[in-house]
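This section describes the prediction task in plain terms. A model, or a person checking by hand, is given the sequence of a single protein chain and must write out its three-dimensional structure as a string of C-alpha cells. No templates, partner chains or ligands are provided. The sample shown here is typical of the held-out split.
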Amino acid sequence: MKKIGLTFGLLVAGLVSAFAADACQPIQGVTQVAARYGEPARFSREISLQYPDFDLIYLGLGRATVGAGHLALQAHYFRAIGSKEQNIINWSAGTGLLGPIGFELGGKRFFIEMRRNSLGGQPGEGEELREDEVVIAPQR
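The expected answer:
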C-alpha cells in the first residue's frame, strides 16, 4: 500500500510541476497585446492582455455559485498567468452588486472591473465600459 501511495504522490507532484512550468509558456494561437493598469482593454479568447505583472486571457462565460451554492450566476472567466503561478478569476454582475473584484497573484493584490472604469483615476473615471472591455488595477 505504501508503494502505491508513493507512486501516486510522485505522479501528482510531476503533473503539478509540469503544469506550473507550462503556465509560463506563450499560448499558441493567441495574439499578445500590451495593456496598462487603470485603462480599458478589449478582451477576447484570441487575445492575451500583457500587464506588467501578468498576462490575462479570457476563457469565456460560465456559471459561478454564490453562498452555499444555491444561486448560480453567469460569470466571465479569465486566467491570470504570472511568472511563477496562475489564477482563475471570475467576474459576475448577477447579484446586482456592480464593482471591482479583488484577486491575488504573485503576492500582489489587484482589482478587475467590467462595468465602469472606477479604477483608472484618469479623466473620464467612472465611464461605462464596453461589453468586451476590462480594467485591471493594482490594489493600493
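For orientation: The longest strand covers residues 55-66.
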